[in-house]
Design goal:
Blueprint: E1 6-12, H1 20-28, E2 34-39, E3 50-54, H2 57-65, H3 87-90, E4 100-104, E5 108-110, E6 126-130, E7 133-137, H4 140-144, H5 155-159, H6 173-180, E8 184-185, E9 190-192, E10 210-214, E11 217-224, E12 227-233, E13 235-237, H7 248-252, E14 255-258, E15 263-265, H8 271-275, H9 285-302
Length: about 325
């Protein structure tokens, strides 16, 4: 089986993460994966595998509206996440040469993507269900999946609501794919750093972990019996965590730590440096927990019912 080509569509408008140069560098370390960034600001020195399409948000919203015979609700850029499952239809012209298309976020640092997507994963038509990284086979059928409705999971309901419905993830496209009997591949390949805890840890991990980017690899370190244990992932998702602008030394480094509020050049890995992840530091702590409360309130206000027979994520 030949290596399938991949193109990721990433619309992003407004302020970018202060560590955006690190995002670009992590893209550059994946030369066999391609991105299309649709944005209202130019990108200085983009890597060869990143195409940049300058566009105003209003113009993109009008283009998307042209694919629907009802009035969509797309007043703010964050709502674009709910339109991701329709990208195969909306951006068909930009995807003609790709075997798989997908979407990703910009609040991430990429690891070695191909190493975490084995060739047998591409025998499936849908790969991963995270909003921060997911792939679809580039076929006319896959481009129309989002139009399949099941119970309260309805693209019309999603696209006419101003609220974020997480249609691109477990609350939407997952139920559609499963109901259609589509072959999908889902494994734990992403470090989702918890947005509810200041110290760095995965959503389901305890105690805090130490994360790093090392010559193209995204790494997680933890202690087991006093010994350092290392594993890698496709990417690390910082979940809009407030991070300080990386220092010049970090931008030039082949290895750096990804800390709770900043990046630091990695000089060595030891039990002590891993254990240090348990110690919270930085003036960002209080604002972090205030944003956590606000986000919790918003999510509670926009929670929607899912079909009873389909609750939960796959086992």
């Amino acid at each position: 089986m030949s290596v399938p080509s991949i193109r990721l569509i990433v619309p992003h408008f407004g302020e970018r993460p202060p560590y955006f140069p690190l995002v670009l560098d992590s893209m550059a370390h994946n030369p066999d994966v391609h991105w299309l960034l649709i944005t209202d600001q130019p990108v200085a020195d983009p890597p060869p595998n990143l195409a940049v399409d300058l566009c105003e948000f209003a113009d993109l919203a009008a283009r998307i509206q042209g694919h629907f015979d009802f009035k969509i609700s797309l007043e703010r850029p964050y709502k674009l996440c709910d339109f991701r499952p329709a990208f195969g239809e909306i951006f068909r012209a930009e995807l003609t040469d790709s075997d798989f298309w997908g979407h990703s976020d910009l609040d991430v640092i990429f690891g070695r993507i191909r190493e975490h997507l084995p060739l047998h994963a591409f025998e499936s038509d849908k790969i991963l269900f995270q909003g921060n990284f997911a792939l679809y086979r580039n076929t006319a059928e896959a481009a129309r999946w989002f139009r399949h409705e099941i119970g309260s999971v309805s693209y019309r309901r999603v696209m006419t609501s101003p609220s974020a419905m997480h249609f691109d993830e477990w609350a939407g496209i997952y139920y559609i794919v499963r109901d259609l009997g589509v072959r999908y591949w889902q494994e734990e390949k992403i470090f989702d750093v918890s947005f509810s805890m200041y110290r760095t840890r995965a959503e389901t991990a305890h105690p805090p972990r130490r994360y790093a980017w090392e010559e193209g690899e995204v790494c997680e370190y933890r202690l087991e019996g006093g010994k350092v244990v290392r594993r890698t992932a496709l990417l690390i998702h910082l979940q809009k965590r407030t991070m300080r602008t990386p220092a010049d030394g970090v931008l030039k480094a082949d290895r750096y730590w990804i800390l709770a509020n900043r990046f630091a050049v990695q000089k060595r890995v030891s039990p002590w440096t891993v254990r240090a992840a348990r110690i919270p530091t930085g003036h960002e702590i209080l604002p972090f927990y205030w944003r956590r409360i606000q986000r919790s309130i918003r999510r509670r206000a926009t929670t929607w019912s899912l079909p009873v027979l389909h609750r939960g994520s796959p086992s």
